[in-house]
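We emphasize that the prediction below concerns an isolated chain of 137 residues; any contacts that depend on oligomerization or on bound cofactors are therefore not represented. The input was used exactly as deposited, without trimming of termini.
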Amino acid sequence: MFKRPGLLSNLLHSGKEPSEYLWDNKRIIIINFIILVSTPVFILFTYLNFQHHLETFAYFNIVNIILLLSVFFYFRLNRNIEHASNVILLVLFITHITSMFQGGIANTGFFLFFYFPLFAIMLKGHKTGLYWIITLL
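Result of the prediction step, given as a token string:
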């Protein structure tokens, strides 16, 4: 009997059937995981930046939220892994640049620098991920 996938499985796999390429499946899960975890975090950071009267950084977070949600819905329609991973890394890049100037909430912005190389290599592979990392530095 056919078992219908659950909501979490549908969200993480973008409603896509398992591919014969395991690498594509891992990248789909990573892209959706980043979107599902970071969107509420950006909403929280936006609220905290408005509370601390840091409107400029709050607006950067709003732009990041809009980009993440547009990737989420665009990825469900198009399933273009390369485009989605580029926009995700661009959002992380914008976040890192703004955290260099702001310092993050309670000066914890330096913790974000450990995530970018990890996600760049996981989403783009070793060679292209290294180019993204060099661009950030």
